[in-house]
């Protein structure tokens, strides 16, 4: 059957796939039956550009729901509009661990290649490079690292700068490692993993679930250029995933798309492939042109994710020698990036928001190169549209042409984000939702459990869960998510004292270290990665067997994304959420998810003793920093932080759980900024 223009045209009524198409207004849905048979499509691509006609054959997968909504919301182009969501949130670039407050640091250092303006921005009242808006000033400085500020509250917006002061010793976090090498390294290990994946499927993945994320459509049935097809084949991809199948034809048509698909189901390729196809059809500027345009701009919230997306693009571009991808991320030398972007093809730029702003502010001719952007992609769009990123994003949107195609992808798109998507998207954008109606946003093959137990037991319970899991699966690969960077460091220290094979990753580590550890974890088995939320979204570590979340996740979305590090590509996985009794309220926000109540693992006196001894070995400065960070994190939580006296009691409970009967003293200045001066139970210094 031949259908013109839209592959999911309502004319395909004989199909057996249930499809929801929403036309104006955006939320009115029309259910239709569509086909499970191949049909030929012909459509014109990217109407704004002089492109060729394409034909493709699309087969529909049976009995899978894909909702495509055409929205009536409008795009504000470059305008900066106040968010209607009205929430503020500190889930910010490179994670939430900037919720940690490490005290005042040296502000007098100069940064190579960074403009005074951007330095100033970093410095506004903040030694760690956090910047804030005027409301922060009213709210008091360090009192909010805003885990749930998205839902409102008095906390200050805390936007962490792209360049972390990872360097504990006061040395700048300037990396010697060329990012190109990092990207190539990641691309290399991705290729290797893909090859291994093709040969040896993990035994734990049943044939049924392992295939569930794939559609019946093969890439070679679509109107993809032969060079891209070669790259796809080499990457080991044969069939499209559901989200790729659903979005490719729409994106190729040149429409703005907002797409929601579960974690680990190939969203990166879903936006990269049509973007590459669009560039392939453009006139290619002279290699030596002084200011060649950037055609595709991909924004990712974290450095790891940006490197990963650039590596994926690099894989797909293998047979497109004239198209190049570059990544610009914080924690690396700005001047190196400038040289690289000048010396190499850079039609695709993958960036973290803060670093991109730095380039807009400081890099010669960068702004004019951005005028060539035809496709803007926001990966983890709900996170990027959140208030924590809003200023950077408004700036970025203002820097790219209004006449462009915009693609928003995420595994979670809360309703409030749909309400504000007009800041980036065209009025007639399509909303593609591959999460079937009535089904959960998490994977059914991932077993989720929660345990509510006193804080005092948390470390012993964590140790027990880990030892049990390790005993069950020699190929264990575990992610332990912690609330802040400093809590991450302390727990990693503890587990390592317990002789577990542990690595840690968070924003207070230098970027070269982060890249190394991330790469190691990607390739390893028999390893535990203790992490802050820098690993929560998008990071594609294959074969993670268990995700443990210790303490309150910042919100429902973050719970889903963290959990989504396991069960990728249809594989099996487990998730464990460990909460204290006063954190139990969080369960209400995920009550629609199948999270079973776990029974408390028996904690013998031996286990307790071992944990106690290990805690006594944990460095005091790590415990002190963890205490302060913990206090900052929960202080900014709307619910927990409301009653300051109670908050301090709980913090001191946390202190005791680390083996410190007397809570560490906190600098007066910081207590003041947290709004915790003179709260009984705190020690000031
Ligand atoms: N068509 C395909 N066939 C097989 N594997 C694929 C295909 N497309 C992508 N993949 C692989 O699937 C894995 C998950 O992809 P990706 O990281 O893009 O997922 P995601 O949906 O963006 O996840 P998240 O929501 O966590 O960001 C990657 O290893 C990627 O290489």
TrEMBL record:
<keyword id="KW-0378">Hydrolase</keyword>
<protein>
    <recommendedName>
        <fullName>ATP-dependent RNA helicase</fullName>
        <ecNumber>3.6.4.13</ecNumber>
    </recommendedName>
</protein>
<keyword id="KW-0067">ATP-binding</keyword>
<dbReference type="InterPro" id="IPR011545">
    <property type="entry name" value="DEAD/DEAH_box_helicase_dom"/>
</dbReference>
<comment type="similarity">
    <text>Belongs to the DEAD box helicase family.</text>
</comment>
<feature type="compositionally biased region" description="Basic and acidic residues">
    <location>
        <begin position="90"/>
        <end position="109"/>
    </location>
</feature>
<feature type="short sequence motif" description="Q motif">
    <location>
        <begin position="217"/>
        <end position="245"/>
    </location>
</feature>
<keyword id="KW-0547">Nucleotide-binding</keyword>
<dbReference type="GO" id="GO:0003724">
    <property type="term" value="F:RNA helicase activity"/>
</dbReference>
<dbReference type="GO" id="GO:0003723">
    <property type="term" value="F:RNA binding"/>
</dbReference>
<dbReference type="GO" id="GO:0005524">
    <property type="term" value="F:ATP binding"/>
</dbReference>
<comment type="function">
    <text>RNA helicase.</text>
</comment>
<feature type="domain" description="Helicase C-terminal">
    <location>
        <begin position="466"/>
        <end position="619"/>
    </location>
</feature>
<feature type="region of interest" description="Disordered">
    <location>
        <begin position="71"/>
        <end position="148"/>
    </location>
</feature>
<feature type="domain" description="Helicase ATP-binding">
    <location>
        <begin position="248"/>
        <end position="431"/>
    </location>
</feature>
<dbReference type="GO" id="GO:0016787">
    <property type="term" value="F:hydrolase activity"/>
</dbReference>
<keyword id="KW-0694">RNA-binding</keyword>
<dbReference type="Pfam" id="PF00271">
    <property type="entry name" value="Helicase_C"/>
</dbReference>
<dbReference type="InterPro" id="IPR014014">
    <property type="entry name" value="RNA_helicase_DEAD_Q_motif"/>
</dbReference>
<keyword id="KW-0347">Helicase</keyword>
<dbReference type="InterPro" id="IPR001650">
    <property type="entry name" value="Helicase_C-like"/>
</dbReference>
<feature type="compositionally biased region" description="Basic and acidic residues">
    <location>
        <begin position="130"/>
        <end position="140"/>
    </location>
</feature>
<dbReference type="InterPro" id="IPR014001">
    <property type="entry name" value="Helicase_ATP-bd"/>
</dbReference>
<feature type="domain" description="DEAD-box RNA helicase Q">
    <location>
        <begin position="217"/>
        <end position="245"/>
    </location>
</feature>
<dbReference type="Pfam" id="PF00270">
    <property type="entry name" value="DEAD"/>
</dbReference>
<dbReference type="InterPro" id="IPR027417">
    <property type="entry name" value="P-loop_NTPase"/>
</dbReference>
């Amino acid at each position: 059957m031949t259908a013109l223009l839209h592959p999911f045209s309502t004319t395909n009524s004989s199909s057996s796939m249930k499809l929801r198409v929403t036309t104006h207004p955006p939320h009115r849905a029309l259910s239709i039956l569509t086909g499970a048979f191949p049909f030929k499509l012909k459509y014109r691509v990217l109407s704004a550009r002089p492109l060729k006609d394409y034909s493709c054959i699309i087969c529909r997968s049976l009995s899978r729901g894909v909702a495509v909504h055409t929205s009536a919301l409008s795009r504000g182009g470059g305008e900066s509009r106040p968010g209607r969501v009205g929430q503020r949130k500190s889930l910010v670039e490179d994670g939430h661990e900037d919720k940690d407050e490490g005290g005042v640091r040296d502000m007098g250092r100069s940064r190579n290649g960074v403009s005074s303006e951007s330095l100033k921005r970093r410095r506004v009242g903040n030694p760690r490079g956090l910047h804030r808006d005027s409301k922060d000033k009213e709210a008091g400085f360090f009192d909010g690292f805003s885990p749930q500020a998205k839902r409102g509250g008095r906390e200050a917006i805390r936007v962490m700068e792209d360049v972390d002061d990872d360097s504990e010793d006061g040395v700048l976090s300037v990396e010697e490692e060329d990012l190109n090498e990092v990207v190539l390294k990641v691309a290399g290990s991705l290729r290797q993993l893909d090859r291994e994946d093709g040969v040896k499927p993990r035994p734990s993945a049943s044939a049924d679930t392992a295939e569930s994320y794939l559609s019946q459509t093969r890439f070679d049935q679509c109107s993809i250029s032969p060079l891209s097809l070669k790259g796809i084949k080499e990457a080991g991809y044969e069939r499209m995933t559901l989200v790729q199948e659903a979005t490719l034809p729409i994106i190729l048509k040149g429409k703005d798309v907002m797409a929601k698909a579960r974690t680990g189901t190939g969203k990166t390729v879903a936006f990269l492939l049509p973007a590459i196809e669009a560039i392939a059809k453009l006139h290619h500027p002279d290699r030596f042109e002084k200011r060649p345009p950037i055609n595709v701009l991909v924004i990712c919230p974290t450095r790891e994710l940006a490197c990963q997306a650039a590596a994926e693009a690099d894989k797909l571009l293998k047979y497109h020698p004239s198209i190049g991808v570059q990544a610009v991320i914080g924690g690396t030398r700005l001047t190196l990036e400038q040289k690289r972007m000048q010396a190499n093809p850079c039609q695709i730029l993958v960036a973290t928001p803060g670093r991109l702003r730095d380039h807009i502010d400081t890099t010669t001719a960068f702004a004019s190169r951005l005028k060539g952007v035809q496709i803007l992609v926001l990966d983890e769009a709900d996170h990027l549209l959140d208030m924590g990123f809003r200023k950077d994003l408004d700036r970025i949107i203002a820097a790219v042409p209004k006449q462009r195609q915009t693609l928003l992808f995420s595994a979670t798109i809360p309703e409030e984000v749909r309400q504000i998507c007009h800041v980036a998207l065209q009025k007639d954008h399509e909303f593609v939702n591959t999460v079937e109606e009535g089904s959960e946003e998490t994977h059914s093959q991932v077993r989720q459990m929660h345990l509510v137990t006193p804080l005092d037991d948390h470390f012993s319970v964590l140790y027990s869960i880990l030892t049990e899991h390790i005993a069950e699966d020699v190929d264990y690969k575990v992610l332990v998510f912690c609330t802040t960077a400093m809590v991450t460091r302390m727990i990693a220290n503890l587990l390592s004292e317990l002789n577990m094979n542990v690595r840690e990753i968070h924003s207070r580590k230098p970027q070269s270290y982060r890249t190394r550890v991330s790469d190691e974890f990607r390739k390893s088995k028999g390893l535990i990665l203790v992490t802050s939320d820098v690993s929560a979204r998008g990071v594609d570590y294959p074969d993670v067997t268990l995700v443990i979340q210790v303490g309150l996740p910042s919100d429902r979305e973050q719970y889903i994304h963290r959990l989504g590090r396991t069960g990728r590509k249809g594989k099996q996985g487990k998730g464990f959420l460990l909460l204290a009794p006063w954190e139990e309220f969080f369960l209400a926000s995920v009550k629609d998810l199948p999270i079973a109540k776990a029974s408390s693992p028996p904690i013998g006196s031996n286990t307790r003793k071992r944990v106690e001894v290990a805690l006594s070995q944990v460095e005091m400065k790590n415990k002190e920093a963890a205490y302060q960070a913990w206090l900052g994190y929960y202080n900014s939580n709307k619910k927990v932080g409301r009653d300051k006296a109670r908050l301090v009691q709980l913090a001191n409970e946390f202190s005791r759980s680390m083996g410190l009967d007397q809570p560490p003293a906190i600098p007066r200045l910081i207590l003041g900024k947290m709004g915790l001066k003179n709260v009984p139970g705190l020690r000031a210094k």
